Amino acid sequence: MNWQKLAENRIDEAIALGEFDDLPGRGRPLDLTEYFSQPASERMGVNLLKNAGVVPPEVELLKQVAALEEALTGCGDEAKRERLNGELQERQVSLALAIERRGRREPL
Asked: Quick check: 108 pLDDT over 50?
């Protein structure tokens, strides 16, 4: 038995058992605009990382900046505020540099 036939048989069995009935997006067309907006050389890697739940470094830096800003609003200790402010400035610079680097790599 060849692999294609084996795969088709397994898919048919799963359909018969209703294993595909509750998939997200069922009955709606796939939106591939985000996929094809990526450069062809990066599509597979980006898709693999996205499916694994790994976010781009810029997104991680954004989350860190937001967390530090929130920590600063609730901080009453002046020494801790200074430390948090230093970390915040460091992350903001890193984020700006990362965004600038990404902008240079993106095709026009």
From this structure: no
pTM value > 0.85: no
The rounded distance, in Å, linking the Cα atoms of 4 and 99 is: 44
Tell the residue number behind the tokens 């088709």, with chain if given.
Answer: 8
CA distance 96 to 99: 5
> Cβ of 71: how many Cβ atoms within 10 Å?
14
Q: How far apart are CA 65 and CA 58, in angstroms?
A: 10
> Coil, strand, or helix at residue 16?
helix
Give the pLDDT of residue 75: 86
Question: 53 and 40 in contact (C-beta within 8 Å)?
Answer: no
